[in-house]
Amino acid sequence: MSPFHRLPDLALRSHGGSVTAASDESFAEKESLIRPGRPGFRPETFGNKGQVYDGWETRRRREPGHDWAVVRLGMPGVIRGVVIDTAWFKGNYPTHASVEAAALEGHPSPAEVLAAPWTEIVPLSPLKGDAEHAFEVFDEGRYTHVRLNIHPDGGVARLRVHGEVRPDLSVHDGLGLDLAALANGGLVTACSDEFYSAPNNVIAPGLARHQAEGWETARRRDGGNDWLVIRLAGRGVVRLAEIDTTNLLFNSPGAVALTGVEGEREVELLPRTRLQPDTPHRFRLAVREPVTHVRVDIYPDGGLARVRLHGHLT
Description:
Residues 16-165, 185-313 form the Allantoicase domain. The protein is mostly beta strands.
């Protein structure tokens, strides 16, 4: 696995991504490109357009050119890697693909996006059928959109765009915000265990629909406890903590504690506090010291659906 796989998928539908335009989607819809989870497949399942695929598939081109799809990133940022997955497309995959990126402010229309300047971040590269293709990106630009170009036509199951979130936090000037949120630039930088699910899930947008959309550890047998460290969107004062154990019925932690960190300085934000299963918890915090990171300790192990740390940037 490439190092960039650990970074959030900026394009994921559940992170706010959208496939805003495509040259063609005759056989399978473009929206499938950014669905969460692995692509599924049921052989000999036919609809009006042929075999049903969990992906994006274009018609067979009979003229020069190539097909493309434009994705608005749910979380703008610096792209560190792209994955083009042709899962289940064995006789109908593109032979080559490239990826471009663009940066636009505001809420542009699809036509305005297509007319914008584009930068190639993945050069034209060969593809195989039914395979994941990982491409590291070496570009420090902040982007809001990507365009997948497939040559000449065919099907792609998923497009993953991993990177570092770079939001426009100026909209929060004078207001509070969730300092831990992925969408605001928060990131889990360290974690004791991620046996069942990824720790960055706890700061993802929206609510967890099931256990796999939160963070869950293995059962500890050593007498210790599990933890994770969240790098905040910026140096700030945390005023309200939300610790959500929704969907964790028999595997929620017994308790939680929060510690603010800035350099070598640590400050107790929330002492060890009892938790209930399948419950959103809200705790007002009295400490007013600014921090850059927050350590979340759970006792002894288990899972959390979401962690929200509301406050103000300093």
